[in-house]
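Consider the following assembly input.
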Amino acid sequence: MSILGQAIDLVLSADAELGRIVGLSLRVSLTATLIASLFAIPMGAALAIWNFRFRQVLIVISTSLMALPPVVVGLMVYLLLSRAGPLGSYGILFTPAAMIIAQSVLIFPIVLALTREAILPLNRDYENLLNALNVSPTQRLKTLIWDARFAIVTALLAGFGRALAEVGAVIIVGGNIAGFTRVMTTTIALETSKGNLQLALALGIILLSIAFAINILIHWIGSFGRKYQVVR
Amino acid sequence: MQHLKIQDLNYTSDNALLLKEINVSHENKGVTAIIGANGAGKSLLLSALHGLITPTSGRILWGDTPAVDGKNTRGYVFQKPIILRRSVRANLAYPLKVQNQPKADQTAATDRMLELSQLSHLADQPAASLSGGEAQRMTIARALITQPKTLLLDEPCSNLDPASTKLIEGMILRFVADGGSVYISTHDMAQAKRLSDVVFFLETGRLLEHKAAKDFFAAPTTREGKAYLSGDL
Amino acid sequence: MRFITACCFLLFSTMTFAEDKFITIASTTSTQNSGLYDYLLPQFTKETGIDVRVVAVGTGQAIKIAKNGDADVLLVHHRSSEDAFVADGFGIDRRDVMYNDFVLVGPKDKANFENLEAALTTFSSSNDYTFVSRGDDSGTHKRERELWAAFNLSPQGDWYREIGAGMGAALNMSASIEAYTLSDRGTWLSFGNKGNLDIVAQGEDMLFNPYGIILVNPAKHPHVKIDMARQFSDWIISDRTQSIIGEFTLNGMQLFCPNANPEQNIDVICPSSVPKVD
């Protein structure tokens, strides 16, 4: 495999340009993860705790959104942010902010569903106690989110991984502008289209290493959280 | 002293009448043992007393306050300890924390409760690592940390060894000595005799006897009471 | 709370590297993939302080982006679409910038064709050849459709594969399945995965591939940065920039012929393979 060898050489001799691309990838995806989680975590917890009107509808919608292909999300955000679209006047199409928005939309249902899944069993354990202590709804949310934090961080990392690996949405709304909105995945797409397979593969290796690191982190956090869990 | 009034209490679930026509007027002091066979409605009555279930009809008043309100004046302990995924200390502090009490007050009260429950040496352990007896002591201390007037205990010593049971009974008696009132459901007649001043005897959802403990154990008036005591002892 | 602050900080820090002084160009992958922009634009930014953001897509999509007002300048290669864009009032001041040509590439040594017409005729009448079409409404795709039509051929059947992807993807696919495809010379020369592919037809007038620059009409989209856009347009057709374009080579091959000012005597010789069109 000479291509693989060349690719590894390229990774090792990473230049400033490559560093910028990797840095932007991380920054965009990290910000998108944080923004998505700001909404998805409380909503996911609320869906797990309370039985309100439209709860089933919301669950079905969010589950369906998980299956949404990134290009479709990209297209929707594109139409929204285009000058011809409703939010066009802000002029954020083809900027990192647009990419963050698209990735947030993409991550939101994942974090929502995984948070709900993490809180459901915890709420079953805690519900009687919280009722007996007459805990307010806000405190209830805080308690359950805090005590499910290890599982929720795992959910965030899963969302982050999806955002980082995604190309379809960011290439549409970011435009893959050199030095400005070019991230790892769009560079891989571009270099592949230029027939520079070594460079594309080199970036792929970096992406893979990050995914690997994220999974180790997920695993580690999971084992840390089990310490506080009641063994039955 | 507060007065406990239960008026025409009925509770139905899935078309089964689980609590039937319960009427009580009771001076709220000392230890009240709620006894009866499995399925007699002991746990349900305790839940209703704390307003955790809504009666199908009738009402429960602590003084003038309906049971759904004033939860902060009572402590409630479940049969199976509910353990928060936190340290022992954080479990104890939790009721004060959700009431947004000052940090210093939380710490002082928690230290007192650690001592009371004899768990100081385990304070920073995850609560999940406690033994059954330790966990139940922690949940009782957690119920006491808000300084309630009344403590409701749902079979707190089932499945516990005699040593653990003794420690828990010690906590209960100390609370009563300090002027608290206790309602404890139990199927351990020896425990009921040891602790209680008054007995509520339930059978299939009806309150058959409500009298001083020494009278009940000496001579139950109902046939069911007699049968239960003789079968159990 | 700390979490929310961190979020805001991150978002803010991401937004702040959006500079004010920039223009957005909707352009084609062929110009970007050749490396021309990487070579040319830093010089413009150095001279004027204006950052140039290139969104490289197919010509058809580039025109749509410009029509929506999401770009300030359009630089594409399909003359009739460009003229329609201006005629419909979306653009102003179209100018010639440069040209090169299209080439028909395919597996080396598989067959010899007398000319383009012979090659296309053979493809459409035999099952021994595969043709990969961009199928993405790009300038190259539009030209390819025009070529079939010019020879009265109808590209239909298993041998004709519309892949709906960019030039690079079409070349990658052609290399791996021994197929033929139409490419612009710039992308072809800079393409790094040629495999067994080589040029099988070139140098005919029909393969002429001119690039034009158009300003997005500020009357249609008042927010466009018309002044900076005009500055860029003036700069790219200036004699000096035109020379620079002519001097751009890849592996010793010239990729584009400047033709903004045909009467001007630019000191650049266009490669003999590229047809001279006035």
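Chain A touches chain C through 33 residues (CB under 8 Å). Ask yourself how this observation constrains the way the partners meet.
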